Amino acid sequence: MGVAAVPRTVWLLVAARAINRLGAFSLPFLTVLISDDFGASTTTAGLLSAAFGLATIPSRLAGGHLAARLGRRRTIVVGLTGCALAQLGIASAGSLAAVAFFAILLGLAFELYEPPSQGIIADTVPAAERVRAYGLLNAALAAGGTGAGLIAAGLGRYDLRWLFAVDAFTCLACALTLHLALPADRPRPTAAGNRPLDLPVHPWRDRALWAMFASGTGFALVAMQVVMALPLTLDRRGYEAADAGLLFTTSAVTVVVAQPVLRLRRLTALSAPVALALGYALLAAGLSGYAIARGLPAFLLATAVWSLGEVIILARAMSVVADLAPPGASDRYLAVYGISWGIATTAAPVTATQLLDHTGVTALWSATAAFALALAAVQLLVVKPLIGPGGGGDGTFRSTTVGTPATAEGLPRPQA
């Protein structure tokens, strides 16, 4: 997909989200702010961070629902504005109770804009090009994240509250940009009497979506365990924990640089389950490298390998979920799929630290790599039979009764 083939709306969305991601550097410092400014224990700080993670689960589902009810542009603006208000609340909070309130409020607003953003790509990009379009979005977010770490390193030296204030500013700037740039929300289809026409959409009844959701939750858990356990791993191997920043930057650069891989003919010819299995195999290879790495160059190489797998997994998985959805329902399907990250954000701090404390560095990463290999097998043994012979990513969609073709209205078509 060349530059000219990307719709202008998608470019605007990607650019605005990259700017927003550039300012999204405050969350890793929430526990530090709670501990340092209010004297809370590490356990209390961890519980509040977990409460934020739990709040992102209903936030993601609400994003899909509001996109269908209010419209995508309105939902995106509401979500980003809510994030900004919550961030400003944290920056100005005078008590631990206030911080807790605004942290939960931030979680409730944090994922609202994801389903409509991903839904816009699903509906404006041809089905055959969705993998590359979602790859472009992921690359933009990775690029913004690279700059975010550098900004955080500078501002954080003065006052951690400034991180939340600047983050709020980027959310408001992104909200204003997208409000002005995105097409206006269209009125919902109506039936007789001007009552809204609600088409039956039941994502939770779709077994193919359940399979994608289960494996996606496994991937998100692995990804979040890397975030949580990598600094601790470096510390136990005799390096500075801060060197994890270098590895995360390597990952982000790999995601950006590796985007042309998604256009390789041999990769695009693979069905989605086979491509996903390949991605998980690369993920496992990189993580197993952490188990045996003894020098920083080895850690860097392992990071590049698993990040390449991530490039394939993220783009293909979102494309498959968008293809599974009936017309007009991509927001809700992507919302259901996306709550896997809320589950992983809540669970990973526990699983990563418990495995590390009770089994050690080598066993932690060996077990995580084995789990990634199991997810590769799941794509071939479970996902492939459910999403059909086309393997997903082909622009077809399935009804809520798996194996039954669906009409343009998302209703099962009687079999001949």
UniProtKB/TrEMBL annotation:
Keyword match Ribosomal protein: no
Region (Disordered), start-end ranges: 394-416
Gene3D superfamilies, A to Z: MFS general substrate transporter like domains
Spans traversing the lipid bilayer: 42-62, 96-113, 134-156, 162-182, 209-232, 244-262, 274-293, 299-322, 334-356, 362-383
Membrane topology note: Multi-pass membrane protein
InterPro entries noted in UniProt: MFS, MFS_dom, MFS_trans_sf, MFS_Transporters
Keyword Membrane among UniProt keywords: yes
Pfam families per UniProt: MFS_1
Location within or outside the cell: Cell membrane
Superkingdom of this protein's organism: Bacteria
Keywords: Cell membrane, Membrane, Transmembrane, Transmembrane helix, Transport
Domain spans labelled Major facilitator superfamily (MFS) profile: 9-386
Record protein name field: MFS transporter
Native source species: Streptomyces crystallinus
